[in-house]
């Protein structure tokens, strides 16, 4: 029977061959931003056509996190607008995008 040390030797080589990458300490001078702050700033900068602010907000979080935040912002905005207008969410979303099937705009 082989010893446990010999049986686990290949596994031990895998873990010792690639030591964990150290995470650099957080720079206290650089503020922390969450995904929703980044998304709100990014969308506002896009509307204002401010490329410097777009780049800044895009650097606050990972690209996939920013995409998630923008998607979440869009969902919440369309939902709030639909409630305000007392219309179905799909109708509001389609109307905002200029898609067919949104129906005629209701008089205010």
List its salient traits.
mainly alpha, 61% helix, elongated, 108 residues
Give the gist of this structure.
With 108 residues, the chain is mainly alpha-helical. The protein has helices spanning 4-7, 9-17, 35-47, 51-58, 63-85, 89-97.
Largest sheet: none
* Radius of gyration of CA atoms, rounded to a whole number: 25 Å
Q: What structural class results from the helix and strand content?
A: mainly alpha
Q: What is the arithmetic mean of pLDDT?
A: 83
Uncertain stretches of 5 or more adjacent residues: none
Oligomeric nature of the chains: single chain
Helix content: 55-70%
Assess the beta-strand content as a share of residues. under 5%
Large-scale geometry: elongated
Beginning-to-end CA distance, first to last residue = 84 Å
Order of helices and strands: HHHHHH
Number of helices: 6
* Strand element count: 0
Model description:
The structure is a single chain. The protein has 108 residues and is mostly helical. Helix content is 61%, strand content 0%. It is built from 6 helices and no strands. The chain is elongated, with a radius of gyration of 25 Å. The protein starts with a helix and ends in an 11-residue tail after the last helix. The model has no long low-confidence stretch (mean pLDDT 83).
